[in-house]
Write a structure and sequence with these properties.
about 240 residues, about 75% helix, mainly alpha, about 0% strand, rod-shaped
């Protein structure tokens, strides 16, 4: 029981005991007055009646006081509950902010880990391109490919992976990337690589970024007959800013 509740209980107990004590005290005083104790006057009964009336007044006074205290107590409890609700709302808002921050941190860590993994894949491709013996470890993209063509396809895959990583990390939107893809797909070597690697694209998750990016490449290839040659966007090639 809190201090405030204990005080309220003691006050109510006083309300009950005080009128009773007052009733007894007034009755004793008024019945002990010599002029009020004559048998024929009936003043003893009047004394008790006066004592009861006085006691009733006191009871009404204490009841009114008790009601006011209860009202004040209820008002304080409402205010305390409202403060607790406000504190809980603030705590929920803080927890939601913390959850959002954790989600953003997790997403950023995932993006960073994925970027590192793709960079490792690109490094492996570069090693295969630089060393013919290592290039033999990679399967041929199509049966009967000459070593030169297979190395070109490996390089085309390297360009493709780089472009896809730039797009996924927000370095270019769909429109910018489509223009860049029209440029890099305008060679027989890249088209041969893209056609030979179709079996790998068939295994992609339709909801993945890789699948959506592959559709951009298909769209760029389909636009070659209706679009003018595209100028190379250096920002997409080496990460530098290009204000043009």
């Amino acid at each position: 029981m809190g201090p405030r509740k204990a005080i309220w209980v003691l006050q109510n107990l006083g309300v009950v005991l005080a009128p009773g004590a007052a009733c007894v005290l007034l009755s004793l005083i008024m019945t002990m007055v010599p002029g009020l104790r004559t048998p024929g006057s009936g003043n003893a009964g009047q004394a008790y009646g006066a004592a009861a009336s006085s006691t009733a007044v006191l009871v009404l006074f204490y009841m009114a006081r008790t009601l006011r205290l209860q009202r004040d107590e209820t008002s304080l409890q409402r205010q305390e509950l409202e403060l607790q609700r406000d504190e809980m709302r603030l705590q929920r808002a803080e927890l939601e902010l913390q959850r959002g921050e954790l989600r953003r941190s997790a997403a950023e860590l995932h993006r960073s880990a994925e970027a590192d993994l793709r960079l490792l894949h690109m490094e492996l491709l570069k090693m295969g391109i630089a060393d013919p013996e290592l290039a033999e470890v990679w399967p041929e993209y199509a049966p009967g490919l000459a070593p030169k063509e297979n190395r070109q396809y490996l390089y085309a895959n390297l360009i493709y992976c780089h472009s896809m990583l730039v797009h996924k990390l927000g370095g270019a939107n769909d429109r910018e990337m489509l223009g860049h893809l029209r440029y890099i797909t305008n060679t027989p070597a890249f088209r041969g690589y893209w056609s030979s690697a179709r079996f790998m694209r068939d295994e992609m998750d339709p909801s993945s970024h890789e699948h959506r990016f592959a559709l951009l490449v298909d769209e760029a290839l389909a636009q070659h007959n209706v679009q003018a040659p595209h100028v190379l966007n250096l920002r997409l090639v080496d990460g530098q800013q290009n204000d043009q």
